[in-house]
């Protein structure tokens, strides 16, 4: 399923848990170029995240940068299994919570979609 999504030209990036990426790197056969679009990312323990490219003629849409070259199965992936990531040191001070995102923080087109303006 991940390979099929990554092979779709409309898909720019797929975020998954690092364990999923590791399994894909281990199991992928033949053309492995699609692995470049599949990247581990924080918070993707219970879902995969498919980021689509901008539709044609969408002036306000900002596309993703091209994925880094390579399959992303080497040192970049191994970092996710390092002690630094698996057993982080506790913060000395608790992090301040981020302020909630409001409609005013989003591009104006989002207000139109949400019916807020
Ligand atoms: Zn996500």
From TrEMBL:
InterPro entries from the UniProt entry: Peptidase_M74, Zn_M74/Hedgehog-like
Return the Basic and acidic residues bias intervals: 86-96
SUPFAM superfamilies documented for this protein: Hedgehog/DD-peptidase
**Residue ranges of the region described as Disordered:** 86-106
Q: Which UniProt keywords apply?
A: Hydrolase, Metal-binding, Metalloprotease, Periplasm, Protease, Signal, Zinc
* Name of the molecule in the record: Murein endopeptidase
């Amino acid at each position: 399923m991940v390979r099929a999504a990554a092979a779709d030209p409309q898909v720019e990036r797929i975020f998954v848990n690092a364990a999923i990426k590791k399994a894909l790197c281990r199991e992928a056969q033949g053309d492995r170029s699609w692995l470049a679009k599949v990247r581990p990312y924080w918070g993707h323990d219970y879902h995969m995240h498919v980021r689509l490219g901008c539709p044609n003629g969408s002036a306000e849409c900002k596309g993703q940068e091209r994925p880094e070259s390579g399959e992303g199965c080497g040192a970049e992936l191994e970092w996710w299994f390092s002690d630094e990531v698996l057993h982080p040191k506790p913060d000395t001070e608790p992090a301040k919570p981020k302020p909630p995102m409001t409609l005013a923080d989003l591009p104006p087109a989002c207000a139109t979609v949400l019916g807020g303006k």
